[in-house]
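Subject: Protein record for review, amino acid sequence with backbone structure tokens
Why sent: The fold of this protein is of interest and is recorded here as tokens.
Enclosed: The protein record, placed directly beneath this head.
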Amino acid sequence: MTDSPGLGPLSDRPRHHQALLTLPAQEAHVSAARHFAADLLETWSVPASERDSAVLIVDELAANAAQYGREHMTLSLVLDHGTLHIVVTDSGTTVERRRRDAAPDEHGRGTGIVQYLAQSTEIHQTRGGREVRACLRCSA
């Protein structure tokens, strides 16, 4: 994990923070990503309502990475100029469409939740896997 505090309280520039966490792409590690984000955002003085939205985004993206990633998932959090950038990468391939016989309450809500909460989202297939970005305005 890294944290860059910026120029300090006397500066008129916003503070910049960043952190990185890599975990095995397994469902058992999703809660670790969620707790990491919650604790870190509290330390960065992100207001509770914005923190709750960000933690829910992290939870959904980490759950998808754990489900579809093969080896590892990486969570990157960057707070800069009033925007929280949440990036989750995994070593998986393109997400398959939900099977028609799968129960609708068991699959498919995660991306909708992320798109609803975030100001913007992007999904990129990379050489090593997939990268999902979500940006959220923060007043911290």
Notes: The longest helix spans residues 48-68. Confidence is low (pLDDT under 50) at residues 4-13, 97-107. The CA atoms of residues 110 and 117 lie 11 Å apart. The longest strand covers residues 16-24.
